[in-house]
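Changelog-adjacent note: as of this version, every example in the card shows the full chain rather than a window. The one below runs 280 residues end to end.
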Amino acid sequence: MTDDQLYASNYAVAFVDLLGQREEMRQYRILPDDKAKAMRVIKDSVGKIVGMHDLFKRFYDSFEATSTFFDNLPSELKAQLPSMNRGELRTQRFSDGLVLYASLAEIPNQSPINSLYGLLSAAGSLVLIHLAGKSPLRVGIEIGWGVELRPGELYGAALAHAYELESQVAQWPRVVVGKDLVDYLEVSSNSEENSINDKYRRAMAQVCLSYLAEDLDGSTIVDFAGPTFLKNASEVQHRETLAKAKHYVDEQLEKWSAQGNASLAGRYQCLRHYLNTRAL
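Full-length structure tokens:
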């Protein structure tokens, strides 16, 4: 590949790790001779990854601008706004991990701030749904430069930092958000420009920031059990899902404590502390 074929831009990257998959894969180093059992092995591993990807994309694509700023604009001003489309969500797979990313380049008919909103809301929803379904996962989200060597093959700082957040910082089921992403949102939310586009970007950045919170260890996380998520979801269904998630976390804490696994028990204790600080 020559230099003039490389196109670098900033990307928002979510690195998702479905926990427990490696242990399940170790049960069968090769496929069983029995075809039915072999298909169950494949579905229990590959099927979970595919299902996770499909659910994330569904959440991402269900984006709606939650800012009342846009809703309250006169129709003649709405017509002046650029497209509200998110950037295309692309996927890259790593064994039991999944990378989802979108370009933050200023491209006609695409809105970088909406891409960030889509990633944050989708990641938070995914972690909550998987906790309720007793299939926990961790996510790291960060922005940074990247180069797509080919579609679905991202290389660069954004991917490296998102992976670092997931693998080294997250520790327990949650969505950890990087400093550069937070800085990007804060700069956008504090912009003093007064064009319609800038006002919309500022309003949506403020919505994104309201999705974030500081966790027990000082990490910035997507506050999937917090008030903004509750406000933008079906309240009854959201509370039921949170209750199921909390029940699962309590089960895991009891299980690992009984087995004397201080590391895993401590991680679920931190997660239970977070959930207990929210009104369920």
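Structural remarks: The chain has a mean pLDDT of 81.
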